[in-house]
Design goal:
This protein is α+β, with helices and mostly antiparallel strands and 66 residues long. The chain is built from two helices and three strands. It has helices spanning 2-17, 44-52; strands spanning 21-28, 34-42, 57-62. Strands 2-1-3 form a three-stranded antiparallel beta sheet, with helices on one face. The radius of gyration is 17 Å and the shape is rod-shaped.
Length: 66
Amino acid sequence: MKKVFTILSVLAIIGLSSCKQDWVCQCMDDSGKVTNNPINGGTFLHAEHDCKHMSGKCSLLTEGRQ
């Protein structure tokens, strides 16, 4: 039982540590100009928080996806 718990713990740690990735916050201002603002090495919640506080109408994208 201890081996199963140890293996599951290691897998959980690996899974949680790999959640950080590069994000792009794509914002459009009132004139229609689109800007891409990189957010490097953050979790989804961190990137979403940063993107919400940028000016304009913004949406969060993963790096490399448009």
